[in-house]
Write a sequence for this structure.
């Protein structure tokens, strides 16, 4: 039942990643749309995520925040969707899922804030530099249909979302390997359903302004 899986989001947020994952899972879920300056900071939602940020899910009373964690959790919680490799084959799955959610996102955020670490700072920062992080990410997807193993997984939802978003908004420079990797992901039915839902919500929000 949808009451067992609740999704907190704003369509203009990283919630789009979790939405795609939910659509790939295929289980019914209830969506609660939050506003940045109001409901996202209300006591009711802060009890779910004290950071006051989206997305978050509540599944059978269990709270999960952070997009990469939500993707990994849903893959395990709904095994019939086959969105996680076998346990023995999860090295690349964990490696690139968390590399993209950690060093890659940190490097992109630092760049957007106008921060470019010098040589000494690069040794201390987990992401090193944006070029280094993107070079590693390029290596992860070059000549691959999927980032981990021979089938689509939750790692592709997260890695694919970050590359897709980055290419769209210019935070990741176009590279042939990135373009080749995301092109077939954009054709997935789950991706298209998620985009249709969130784009529809965005259009309603903009019309109401």
């Amino acid at each position: 039942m949808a009451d067992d899986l609740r999704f907190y989001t704003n369509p203009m947020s990283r919630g789009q990643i979790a939405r795609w994952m939910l659509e790939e899972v295929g289980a019914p879920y209830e969506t609660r749309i939050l506003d940045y300056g109001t409901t996202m900071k209300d006591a009711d939602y802060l009890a779910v995520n004290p950071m006051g940020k989206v997305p978050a899910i509540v599944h059978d009373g269990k709270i999960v925040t952070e997009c990469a964690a939500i993707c990994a959790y849903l893959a395990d919680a709904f095994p019939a969707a086959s969105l996680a490799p076998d346990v023995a084959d999860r090295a690349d799955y964990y490696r690139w899922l968390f590399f993209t959610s950690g060093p890659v996102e940190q490097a992109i955020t630092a760049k957007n804030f106008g921060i470019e670490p010098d040589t000494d700072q690069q040794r201390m920062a987990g992401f090193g530099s944006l070029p280094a992080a993107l070079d590693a990410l390029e290596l992860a997807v070059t000549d691959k249909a999927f980032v981990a193993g021979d089938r689509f997984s939750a790692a592709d939802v997260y890695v694919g979302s970050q590359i897709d978003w980055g290419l769209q908004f210019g935070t990741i420079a176009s590279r042939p390997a990135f373009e080749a990797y995301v092109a077939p992901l954009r054709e997935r039915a789950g991706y298209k359903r998620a985009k249709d839902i969130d784009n529809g919500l965005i259009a309603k929000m903009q019309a109401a302004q």
Notes: The radius of gyration is 17 Å. The CA atoms of residues 120 and 128 lie 10 Å apart. The mean pLDDT is 96. Residues 2-82 form a domain with the Glutaredoxin fold (CATH 3.40.30.10).
